[in-house]
Design goal:
With 467 residues, the chain is α+β, with helices and mostly antiparallel strands. The protein contains 19 helices and ten strands. Strands 5-6-7-9-8 form a five-stranded mixed beta barrel. Helix 16 (271-279) runs antiparallel to helix 17. The chain is elongated and about 100 Å long.
């Protein structure tokens, strides 16, 4: 089911927009079809139009009859379409009558290995001569040679595709039955095609809750407790590894920290490093807001007093002060997180300066095929592709406010008029299109939305009430 819907975020090799689209078009539902898809996506198959032909023949059994009888017999599994490197040798030998030595010259040249130019030219001439003797028409002879030549753009041998598909299939199993654990492991493994924030959004989509690093619950990597995922200390910008190591070792040997003062007694830390932990709200277990604790830190932390990483026999007495009450802004919290983590833990849609209009949701796009719609999306990734006229098309992938993923296509006129400039929330207007069950939006207008100003850039950005 995940394969058929292209729901493969975080899954080895099959998570890119192009691969998700291919799996949806193929309605891939078993291992062998996944093996074929793993090779069909490669440039060698795509560049000669064989990818589109494979999709059409897979979805329409009647179209398979259009294959040349010899090609259909040689490659029955792939409907007469060359998909794997081995197919080139089969076609060269059985269709054109080349001996296996000449067929191997083609294979080596196709896979990028050094082959003398005169040897390739000789094989090409032999191919055409043999096809003429076999009675093949010049049109089909030339068409198949072009297909063979296109494999120089890189194609997989079947064994390579099969081994990739094994890992993809195993990963899909884990994502289906252990989605949160799988996504946390994917993050801890360094992520994949997308950025960290995209995988965090995927965790939310599968029912997980994301929390900022916590002094008592987090580790250097991400950790999961049921559905609660705590980000690792390793994500915090400018937090030193020696501080993380000392914190974790102390907690392991002597138990959780019972209070802010207990932490100060047990861990040797500079005010600069402590401020980082306070800004990310890592001490929220104390029940005090981070501004309150930041003031207490300056009052209580002595820069001159040296401490060792073990419980103190005689604990110092800290003087308490009456502090004002602080009004906490969610916007300030979000920008603190962006500064230290690179992304906010709230939805990016909550940071927009102006409210959104009522729009279509990504999950409902299939109901609007052929119609013009409007939708807001947070950009995940985008790429460009050149046309025969040397103009640029742009392909984008977004998720909406509910976490549903959708893809967009910009033809050269709109790509030039409405360029995508960096990450952010975009308003999209366009027509919904369907190609073999793969839904996309052909964009006519796309505009990046303005975010609310960072309150920290304004003087006196938080209010103080004197108790």
């Amino acid at each position: 089911e995940l394969l058929k819907n292209g729901d493969c975020m975080g899954v080895f090799y099959v998570e890119s927009p192009a691969m998700r689209g291919l799996l949806t078009k193929l309605q891939t539902s078993d291992y062998m079809n996944l093996v074929a898809a793993s090779s069909v996506i490669r440039p060698g198959v795509s560049s000669a139009g064989m990818k589109e032909e494979f999709i059409k023949r897979h979805r329409d059994p009647e179209r398979r009859k259009q294959a040349h009888p010899i090609m259909a017999e040689i490659m029955d599994e792939s409907y007469g379409v060359m998909v794997y490197q081995e197919d080139v040798m089969k076609v060269a030998h059985e269709f054109a009558g080349l001996n296996f030595e000449d067929a191997d010259v083609l294979r080596r040249g196709m896979s990028g290995k050094k082959v003398a130019k005169e040897d390739l030219e000789k094989v090409e001439q032999t191919y055409y001569d043999n096809c003429r003797e076999k009675g093949h028409s010049s049109e089909i002879t030339r068409e198949i040679w072009e297909q063979i030549s296109s494999f120089a753009g890189y194609a997989f041998p079947k064994g390579h595709s099969a081994s990739y598909a094994v890992e993809s299939y195993q990963s899909l199993y884990l994502k289906r039955y252990f989605p949160l654990e799988f996504m946390v492991a994917a993050l801890n493994n360094g992520g994949g095609f997308y950025n960290i924030e995209t995988y965090i959004q995927e965790i939310r989509r599968w029912g997980g809750k994301i929390y900022a690093p916590c002094i008592n619950r987090s580790d250097h990597p991400n950790v999961i407790y049921g559905k609660d995922v705590y980000l690792g200390f390793g994500y915090i910008k400018d937090l030193e590894n020696k501080v993380i190591q000392q914190l974790l070792e102390n907690r392991q040997f002597f138990g959780k920290f019972r209070s802010f003062e207990d932490f100060l007694d047990r861990v040797s830390i500079s005010i600069e490093q402590l401020t980082i932990l306070l800004k990310i709200n890592a001490f929220r277990f104390t029940g005090f807001d981070k501004y309150h604790l930041l003031w207490k830190a300056h009052f209580k932390l002595s820069k001159n007093r040296s401490r060792i990483n073990q419980p103190l026999l005689f604990k110092p007495k800290y003087r308490n002060f009456d502090l004002p009450q602080f009004e906490i802004s969610r916007l300030v919290e979000a920008y603190d997180q962006i500064e230290l983590l690179g992304f906010p833990l709230c939805s990016q849609f909550e940071l927009l300066k102006h409210p959104m209009k009522e729009c279509v949701k990504a999950k409902d796009l299939g109901e609007y095929v052929g119609q013009e719609i409007e939708i807001y999306g947070n950009l995940i990734t985008s790429r460009t592709a050149g046309t025969v006229n040397n103009k640029l098309m742009r392909f984008g992938t977004f998720y909406d406010k509910e976490g549903g993923i959708f893809d967009t296509v910009q033809f050269p006129d709109t790509s030039e008029k409405y360029p995508i400039r960096g990450k952010g929330i975009y308003f999209c207007r366009g027509t919904v299109a369907s190609s073999f069950d793969y839904i996309s939006i052909r964009v006519s207008i796309i505009v990046r939305q303005e975010t609310a100003q960072d309150p920290r850039l304004v003087d006196n950005y938080f209010k103080v009430k004197i108790a």
